[in-house]
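Retro notes, item 3 of 5
We never archived the inputs for the zinc ion complex last cycle. Fixing that now. Sequence and ligand:
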Amino acid sequence: MQPLHIPQLANRQDRTLEVIVDTMVPEFETLTPVRGKVIIKHGGTFLDLAAQAEAIITLKCDRCLQQYNHRLVLDASEIIWLEEPPTEPDRRGMEIRTDPEDLVDSLAPDGHFDPTVWLYEQLNLSLPLRQLCATDCAGIIPPPEPDPEPSEAQQLMDRRWGILANLKDRLPE
Ligand SMILES: [Zn+2]
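Structure as it came back at the time:
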């Protein structure tokens, strides 16, 4: 998926572009390609974005730490405002920039939109917060009970005590 020049999107029929996705997304590790679609609509002062996609990913269980495969189902939508970035910092600039939404959710009207980057962000947001291999995962299974047989070191000690006891018997009182 190539970055889209936003003004060209406005010239399209219905001002909408539907991109079929069947690809590995860079930096987002999946067992299967991410399959689905991204729909980008130019709304004049904003982009109306939607994505429906699926992929199998490998996660690590929070409870038992085992890896397991998970079917990630993405159904996301977002509005990104088209605004000229401020040409010079104004006095209120600092205050505005503290709001992270202002940083992420706007693009220059004559700039580019990269569907791959957006899809990557949406996939990351759709990862389950609580990763469990099964709803009834028992967690980390404790190691097996210690061997009830006496250890080798223990047997060696017993033998030495036996020799000592024999010596003691042979000593004159
Ligand atoms: Zn588990």
